[in-house]
UniProtKB/TrEMBL annotation:
The gene is cysS. ATP binds at K286. InterPro entries: Cys-tRNA-ligase, Cys-tRNA-synt_Ia_DALR, Cys-tRNA/MSH_ligase, Rossmann-like_a/b/a_fold, tRNA-synt_1_cat_dom, tRNAsynth_Ia_anticodon-bd. Its EC number is 6.1.1.16. It comes from Pedobacter steynii. Its cofactor is Zn(2+). It catalyses: tRNA(Cys) + L-cysteine + ATP = L-cysteinyl-tRNA(Cys) + AMP + diphosphate. This is Cysteine--tRNA ligase. A motif ('HIGH' region) lies at residues 33-43.
Length: 486
């Protein structure tokens, strides 16, 4: 089955023709969120990118099994087996059980992705639900001689492994440089080599999330869950493994090592990495604290934001960049996306109002071909958007009576929009009346504030009472004025 799709493979550092191992079936594994706090917009970019990929593969006729995990245990703060457990730390802070933290932020994650109209994966396995599979895999790696136990903790022996395999196959880094540049961190007195990483970590007396294992009570290291769960649901060899670019150097490098040390197979044929959402050029991240939450973006409730933007505007903004390019957040760029998205949706709503003619001044076929070609070229959504605006121009020209379109071409236009805007991009029309009301009320509240400052109480009262008669209640407090609908 050749659909003409080419994708960039991090493993080979080039674009390749996509040839699934077992077409029309495609197995795709994407590293999901660590659910110890709200997902920020950067995380969303990665999941929106893979949603686009999932949707396009499906559109192209593949039967995709899309597995996206939930990391709900075993993630320490540092990438090298050091620091506190992220869940335990948060649980202490919020005075909740670690599993309450997991539940709370998993629900939040799902809510946010639903707002962005992304499709759910086929399977969403959790690390805590697959402790047995992880233990089995660690046992196999030990018996193959690539891991060792030290005082209740099990480490992967990178030096031993790299005698037979290429540990840095994914990023092509030089092992000598890596060794020279790696600080000794967690478990340094137990590790045989500086690059060794934990597969299983011994529980401390205060550790809350702990499980019994052949090495005593403990919890799995972060990397083993993805190797164990991808093998379980997609097999030892599958088609696509994805995640954000920040995961390639450590998490995915270690995943490949674990899988090869267990089954002697490189797990994924294609490794795909999405680029980062940045703020003023710096990667948005939970740890750096420069990330804003989708909620804040929708409401405009953040110092970096001039106003709120709707979920579909934000999604459109993301699709306007290729998934392998960085995307820098700015109010101006989002403003432009808002206008662009409105223009697109407005044209779509005009399609039903167009009158058709015998002759057509326009041909939709080439646009459709260009859109398919662009998506087949490593999912090039910005090129598709440029083509869609060609279609918008056609619609507006016919609507303004400056051109004609035939019934057959109009049908093609409708199919183009349905396929690319709704099915592949996963955009949808949205009711923006609340957002608009928000901006109008912000302005009215500002006018009332000025009136009060000028001691023009007649005007300020008129505003308050006028809104009240429309069912909008203003509430003044030290922080300012808020409103709610009665
Ligand atoms: P985490 O919850 O930190 O494990 O991250 C979940 C996913 O979001 C991973 O695939 C990360 O690579 C990705 N990610 C984290 N920060 C960003 C960012 N600023 N832009 C795009 N993706 C990101
Ligand atoms: Zn992973």
């Amino acid at each position: 089955m050749d659909t003409g799709l080419q994708l960039y493979n991090t493993l080979t550092r080039k674009k390749e023709i996509f040839e699934p191992l077992n077409a029309p079936h495609v197995g795709m594994y994407v590293c999901g969120p660590t659910v110890y706090s709200d997902v920020h917009l950067g995380n969303c970019r990665t999941f929106i990118s893979f949603d686009l990929i999932f949707r396009y593969l499906t559109y192209s006729g593949y039967k995709v099994r899309y597995v996206r995990n939930i990391t709900d245990a075993g993630h320490l703060e540092g990438d090298r087996d050091e620091g506190d457990d992220k869940f335990a730390k948060r649980a202490k802070l919020e005075q909740l059980e670690p599993m309450e933290i997991v539940q709370k932020y998993t629900l939040g994650f799902h809510d946010v992705l639903r707002m962005f109209n992304t499709l759910p994966p086929s399977i969403e396995p959790t690390a805590t639900g697959h402790i047995i599979e992880q233990i089995e895999m660690i046992k196999e790696i030990i018996s193959n001689g690539y891991a060792y136990e030290a005082n209740g903790t099990v480490y992967f022996d990178v030096e031993k492994y790299s005698k037979e395999y290429n540990y840095t196959i994914l990023t092509n880094r030089n092992m000598e440089d890596m060794l020279a540049n790696t600080r000794e961190l967690g478990g340094q007195d137990e590790k045989r080599g500086r690059l060794d990483f934990a597969l299983w970590i011994k529980a401390k007396p205060e550790t809350l999330m702990r499980w019994a294992s052949p090495w005593g009570e403990g919890f799995p290291g972060w990397h083993i869950e993805c190797s164990a769960m991808s093998a379980k649901y997609l097999g030892e060899e599958f088609d696509i493994h994805g995640g954000g670019m920040d995961l390639a150097a450590t998490h995915h490098t270690n995943e490949i090592a674990q899988s090869e040390a267990c089954s002697h197979k490189q797990p994924a044929k294609y490794w795909m990495h999405t680029n980062m959402l940045t703020v003023n050029g710096t990667r948005m991240s939970k740890t750096l604290g420069n990330g804003f939450l989708p909620e804040e973006l929708f409401k405009g409730d953040h110092v970096l934001l001039e106003k709120g933007f709707s979920p579909m505007t934000v999604k459109f903004f993301m699709l306007q960049a290729h998934y392998r390019s960085t995307l820098d957040f700015s109010n101006e760029a989002l403003d432009a996306s808002e206008k662009g998205f409105k223009r697109l949706m407005n044209a779509i709503s005009l399609m039903d109002k167009l009158s058709v003619s015998e002759n057509s001044d326009f041909e939709v076929g080439p646009i459709m071909d260009n859109c398919v070609k662009a998506m087949n070229d490593d999912f090039n959504s910005p090129v598709v958007i440029a083509e869609l605006f060609e279609a918008v121009r056609m619609i507006n020209t016919v609507y303004d009576g400056k051109g004609t379109i035939s019934a057959a071409e109009l049908d093609k236009l409708k199919k183009l929009m349905k396929d690319f805007v709704f099915d592949i991009f996963g955009l949808k029309a949205e009711d923006t009346s609340n957002l608009e009301l928000n901006s109008v009320l912000d302005m009215v509240i500002e006018l009332r504030k000025t009136a009060k400052e000028n001691k023009d109480y007649a005007t300020s009262d008129k505003i308050r009472l006028g809104l009240q008669s429309m069912g909008i209640q203003l509430k003044d407090s030290k922080e300012g004025t808020t409103w709610n609908k009665a």
